[in-house]
Amino acid sequence: MSTLSTNQQQALADNVWLHFFQMGHLSSTGARPTVLVRGEGSRVWDQDGKSYIDGLSGLFTVNVGYGRREIAEAVAAQLTDIAYVSPFSFPSLPMIDLSAKLASISPTGPQSRVFLTSGGSDAVETALKLAKAYHRMNGDAERTKVIARRVSYHGTSMGALSVNGVTSIRNGFGPLVPGARHVPLPYQYRCDYCALHGACRRTCVDEVERLIEFEGPETIAAIIMEPVQNSGGAIVSPPGYLQAIREICDRHGILFIVDEVICGFGRVGGWFGSAEMGVSPDIITCAKGITSGYAPLGAAVVRKAIADAFISDNDAEKFMHGITFGGHAASAAAALANLAILEREGLTERSRELGNYMISELRAAVGNHPNVGEVRGMGMFYGRRVGARSRNPRVAA
Predict the structure, then answer these.
(1) Which pLDDT tens digit goes with each residue over 326-380?
(2) Residues facing 40 on adjacent strands
(3) Distance, CA of 44 to CA of 254 (rounded, Å)
(4) Domains of the chain by start residue, with CATH
(5) Per-residue pLDDT reduced to its tens digit, 252-300
(6) Cis before residue 175, ω within 30 degrees of 0?
(7) CA nearest to 225, candidates 233, 235, 214, 216
């Protein structure tokens, strides 16, 4: 047990600023915050010694659980050898090994190039800049627009925020980076087009095509989507949807970015959600489960044909982008140890198996309850819709 000292309590009241949290609630309500001080497996303990099951895995992050000493030891060993290596021209050994490992497991192919970042927003920012730079190098300077889905979450840095589909997060920070466009999400339960029909009519795919035609395909740089969309509640892309988006991108010369910041590394089963759904992106963005939260790290994994456009002896063709802590050597070491655990213990396959069991049991237990509209999800990433069982999106809660 580790109670807060008087100084710590004062610092929490005066100095701490939590993310997406109104700090005034602590003083106005007199609420006593939960300070987590220890973790083991799937459990965490607060300052009073009370234990909790961490059903959210930190923030969809701690994929191998808490208390993995070998990850901490890998970080410590790397910090002892050399604490920092500038990614501006200098690779570290863990960066080299991790890049090779990510390429070997990625649906972008074993010759992919990996641009390591410090987290998920940085990874998305990198992918967006890369897509625009790629088209510009190919003489398509007008390809600056990016299509995302409504209610999608892609981060909070300015580029990522601009393609973010959660309006409550975007509002108040304008003007945002221009060129972001949003299409309906493929969610039959709430779909204005398909909710009253027995099956998906692919109208959500048609809307993507219509938007491209309206804007002009020669102006679209990329489409970015999550395999299972987090915001809105574990919304699984329906069968064939991502393949249809892939075909649209190929036909119009648009890059397909799949945001796997949450879905990667076993969260929805398999190494990546896109692979589970049988689609190969041009760029994958990932973070969170790449280190299971033991150190900050993200990555943009780029298909060889895209990366090769920047690989030459001409400095004018290099990708003018970098992050001081991108691919930090200690974080890369944490990632390698984390991926080794995932692989050795078969945790990606375990996620798939337990996910199938969980959704079956949840549907059997509450699927017919009058106040449960649906149970949805994939792997170890689930949500449910609470409300009337009507399929009409205008009356369902």
Answers:
(1) 999 999 999 999 999 999 999 999 999 999 998 899 889 988 888 888 888 899 9
(2) 43
(3) 44
(4) 6-60 (no CATH), 69-344 (3.40.640.10), 347-386 (no CATH)
(5) 999 999 999 999 999 999 999 999 999 999 999 999 999 999 999 999 9
(6) yes
(7) 235
